[in-house]
Amino acid sequence: MPRLQNKTALVTGGARGIGAAIARAFRDEGADVILTDIDGANGQAMADEMGAIFVRLDVSTEADWDAVAERFPAIDVLVNNAGITGFEGPFDGAPPAHDPENASLADWRAVHAVNNDGTFLGCRYAIRAMRAKGVGSIINISSRSGLVGIPMAAAYAASKAAIRNHTKSVALYCAGQGLAIRCNSIHPAAIMTPMWEPMLGDGLDRPDREAAMVADTPLRRFGDAAEVAALAVMLASDEVAYMTGAELTLDGGILAGSAATPGG
Ligand SMILES: NC(=O)c1ccc[n+]([C@@H]2O[C@H](COP(=O)([O-])OP(=O)(O)OC[C@H]3O[C@@H](n4cnc5c(N)ncnc54)[C@H](O)[C@@H]3O)[C@@H](O)[C@H]2O)c1
After folding, report:
1. So where does this one cross the membrane (predicted)?
2. Structure letter (DSSP) for residue 117
3. Which residue of 72, 112, 122, 233 has the fewest CB atoms within a 10 Å radius of its CB?
């Protein structure tokens, strides 16, 4: 029997990358999927391909969430996946600085608007949309960057750390309300998606850049979006009904040790 039969799931940022992989895996497991994104063209095409409903949703915009709540007052699963690093571009010249000394307040806020406001608004919608049944699963896509400092992507790292913590507040709040609404965070690292394109480029040195980026990863490769989706399916299913407030890393082993580990 499919693991998500009779469940309705909403996925944000589903037009490509990890969100698209999660939406596809949910469909494969029998869920009805509402695939959302700010990218209307690719979002619609992706939804059509997998038999999902597409809705344009900018996660940082409260009015967009209000419209979603009106159209879909009840859901079983929400994946807060949409996120940005601040390096998406295109830029006039060099990408903006995102280190703690030189980042602009506008660039800092832009990252937080999508990653944090989006996750807050999504969780708020989901709690309300799951309250009648009293059961549901909220899955927040944080990052390895939410668990360690990233000097050159400070806003991204801080925003992902906030997602980790908000996940635990939501989990405890729902449990305290007597609701079986679970909330957990996934912390991927180096998953090969279009998010990496600006950093990898399409020059002849691309293979070298790829290898350099995973040189410190114990499994020495990028992860696949389908591997994140497999974890999301488990969290969305009833198989782990006792898991809430948890943070699950999916990072090829990076966080298992430290660069200073004796003996390499
Ligand atoms: N790829 C990785 O290595 C990696 C690692 C850790 C965490 N993550 C996280 O996983 C999530 C997905 O990453 P990805 O690699 O698939 O990224 P991606 O850039 O390939 O896709 C992101 C999607 O989100 C959409 N989006 C951007 N802003 C939006 C907004 N305001 N409202 C709605 N949709 C919006 C984009 O249109 C795009 O379809 C992000 O939260 C990211 O931070 C990714």
Report:
1. none
2. I
3. 72
